[in-house]
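@channel sequence for tomorrow's demo:
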Amino acid sequence: MERYPDYMTQGGSIESARDNLKEAPEFFFETASSEEIQYRLHREFNKTHR
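structure tokens (generated this afternoon):
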């Protein structure tokens, strides 16, 4: 998943892993510092708008 290269997940089935992956951004925003969020958002913006 190129847009979110740092997300990793696992599950007992493909469906379970997919569900866990959908929760990854929510968990990131709940736990990351504001500096980390700004860094990653800025980095992703620069990658997609060159």
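heads up for whoever presents: The chain has one domain: 14-48.
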